[in-house]
Amino acid sequence: MFIGQYSHLIDPKKRLAIPSKFRKQLGGGVVITRGIDNCLFLYPAKEWKILAEKLSKLPISKSNTRAFSRLMLAGAMDAEIDSQGRILIPDYLKEYASLKDKAVIAGLYNRLEIWDEATWNSYKSRTEKQSSDIAEQLGELGV
């Protein structure tokens, strides 16, 4: 289970250190892809396989399911965690998430999200202001 948020620098070679707390759970292989809200999703290989299988079963006759599948699957890339606990972020994903030199890695149970620090701070601020409304809507869903 991944929880918490951590700030890390992206080095000039486009490598990002994964918090040591998460490395063991990720194992050696991970999949990094475009996320929602202009962040990146990082999945352990096992969790990625579960998601990819669900996506592959969505009806291709619906434009929204095709678009979402393309976003997630075509944007995905296998990545290895190196001996210093870093992953290489490909240029197209770095551009998608507008990543600069400071990143936030947020644990969200079965995945990690990688955010540009300024984008994360802006998103977090907006969400915190709406927390009562969000809680009420989740309450209606039984959360």
Q: Residue share in helices?
A: 40-55%
Structural class: alpha+beta
What about the largest sheet? Answer: 6 strands, antiparallel
Radius of gyration in whole Å, from Cα? Answer: 16 Å
- CATH homologous superfamily designation: Transcriptional regulator MraZ domain
Care to describe what's here?
The chain starts with a strand and ends with a helix. With 143 residues, it is of the alpha+beta class. It has 6 helices and 8 strands, in the order ββαββααββαββαα. It is globular. The protein has a 6-stranded antiparallel beta sheet. The chain has one domain: Transcriptional regulator MraZ domain (Chemotaxis protein chec, 3-Layer(aba) Sandwich).
How is this fold's topology laid out?
Layout lengths: L1 E8 L5 E3 L2 H7 L2 E6 L5 E5 H12 L6 H12 L2 E4 L5 E3 L2 H6 L5 E8 L1 E6 H13 L1 H10 L3
Antiparallel strand pairs: 1-7, 2-6, 3-4, 3-5, 4-8, 7-8
Task: Describe the structure concisely for a colleague.
The chain is of the alpha+beta class and 143 residues long. The chain has helices spanning 20-26, 45-56, 63-74, 91-96, 117-129, 131-140, and strands spanning 2-9, 15-17, 29-34, 40-44, 77-80, 86-88, 102-109, 111-116.
